Amino acid sequence: MSITLLCLVKGNTTASAFAVDIDREKLVSHLKDAIKEKKQNDFAGIDADRLKLWKTTTKAVGDPPASVQLWGDFFEQVNSFHFDQQPRFERPRFVMKEVVDEEDVRSVLDFNICQILNKLMGPDCVYSRRPTDTPGIPDFNCHLIGSLILVMEAKRKHVLEDMGEQTFPEFYNTSKGKDVIQQIYNYMGGNELRYGILTTYDNHWFLCREHTKLWISKTLSLESESPPVLKAYAYLT
């Protein structure tokens, strides 16, 4: 299935926006090739893989959750759960990479989180960036034996820099907090999913939806050992 993306070169006005058609199954590298081909003069002398892409969205709309509450015991649930191969999740060695923009966030998440989880969890559980024929286009998704079970949304750190030491239910009272949560809540509700994950890579939040009510965990840092980040991800599957 082909989709049409509206593209805009950073610094240009919306009057310069152009459309690019691409198959939903294609990867970001294919999109870069399509953009370079579409704007050959603008990107002459620039290799397609050097292009930096940002996914932007309009203000998130839709019915908001009836309530946003703290998933206060999530960390305790993860810590007390015992996997058959528990030691594999404890202290992974992450490859360090400077994260500048949202595409960097997605790339390092794919390499350090998703690909590692795919190796640890086995062939039945697959974290992927591939688009699915479902409402919305989340950054990542997870399928268990072919069925979509959760979605992930990546954000640059600066999007959440005003959050400070607040919990997400507290930050939700701000307009920026509402927009961030509304987007992933739409993905979860549109796909009838119970779980979702919001991440800046350095920090992670785990979401649980019950009908129109939403619970969000405390902030889990990448360096956490109680619980380890990978174990928290695996727990939701």
TrEMBL record:
One of its GO terms (cellular component) is extracellular region. Its main location: host cell. Keywords: Secreted. The keyword Secreted applies. Residues 3-57 form the Crinkler effector protein N-terminal domain. It is found in: Host cell; Secreted. This is Crinkler effector protein N-terminal domain-containing protein. It comes from Rhizophagus irregularis.
